[in-house]
């Protein structure tokens, strides 16, 4: 089974993300995120394969890990893009939130079977929550023109770590671990 680990956006930030994702995808005929719904999140560990025994070990590690953490601040003030294809909310992690991320990567690194890709273990991550893809350069330009005018303003907390799974076509929440 394929899994990923992320931070779930909730509250007003999560509602804003979900609403804008649907609006932009519909308006610009970019149905991927409509046809393949995914919980509003920022990726902390990119997709990997794990069997039942392996995912149980990760679940146990995260369960212990979150008990040692305190909620930390995250700001959302900007819309960003990368590769001139993906438009996203930019999540600015505080020093404390970055420490949680770095410590999580360190703990996950202890699993020698875990797959690590090009974007994993980058400790100066540009955290984001994808709003929409522009699958052609022209469509990206139109999407970016509208999306870049958005002015999100959210002060949220790094208060969870979630495991997402992809049993078939869609990513779903597997488990959520709350940071107190």
Which key terms come to mind for this protein?
8 strands; 180 residues; 34% helix; four-stranded antiparallel β-sheet; globular; 5 helices; alpha+beta; 33% strand; Cyclic Phosphodiesterase, Chain: A
Topology readout:
Blueprint lengths: L1 E7 L2 H17 L4 H4 L5 E9 L2 H16 L4 E11 L3 E8 L1 H14 L19 E6 L3 H11 L6 E5 L1 E7 L5 E7 L2
Antiparallel strand pairs: 1-2, 1-7, 3-4, 3-6, 4-5, 7-8
Can you put this structure into words, describing what you see?
There is one protein chain. With 180 residues, the protein is α+β, with helices and mostly antiparallel strands. It has one domain (2-71, 94-129, 159-178): Cyclic phosphodiesterase (Cyclic Phosphodiesterase, Chain: A, Alpha-Beta Complex). The protein is built from five helices and eight strands, in the order βααβαββαβαβββ. It has helices spanning 11-27, 32-35, 52-67, 95-108, 137-147, and strands at 2-8, 41-49, 72-82, 86-93, 128-133, 154-158, 160-166, 172-178. The strands form two sheets. It has a four-stranded antiparallel β-sheet with strand order 2-1-7-8, covered by helices on one side. A four-stranded antiparallel β-sheet has the order 5-4-3-6. A hairpin with a 3-residue loop joins β3 (72-82) and β4 (86-93). The longest helix is centred in the N-terminal third of the chain and has 17 residues, at 11-27. It is globular. The model has no long low-confidence stretch (mean pLDDT 93).
């Amino acid at each position: 089974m394929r899994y990923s680990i992320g931070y779930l956006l909730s509250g007003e930030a999560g509602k804003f993300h979900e609403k804008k994702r649907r609006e932009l995808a519909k308006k610009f005929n970019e149905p991927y995120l409509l046809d393949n719904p995914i919980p509003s999140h920022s990726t902390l560990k990119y997709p990997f394969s794990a069997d039942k025994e392996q995912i149980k070990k990760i679940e146990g590690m995260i369960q212990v890990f979150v008990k040692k953490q305190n909620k930390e601040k995250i700001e959302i003030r900007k819309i960003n893009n990368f590769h001139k294809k993906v438009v996203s909310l930019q999540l600015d992690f505080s020093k404390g939130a970055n420490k949680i991320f770095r410590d999580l990567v360190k703990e996950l690194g202890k699993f020698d079977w875990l797959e690590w890709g090009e974007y994993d273990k980058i400790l100066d991550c540009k955290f984001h929550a994808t709003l929409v893809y522009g699958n052609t350069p022209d469509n990206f330009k139109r999407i970016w023109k509208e999306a870049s005018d958005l002015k999100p303003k959210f002060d949220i907390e790094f208060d969870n770590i979630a495991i997402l799974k992809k049993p078939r076509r869609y990513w779903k929440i597997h488990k959520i671990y709350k940071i107190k």
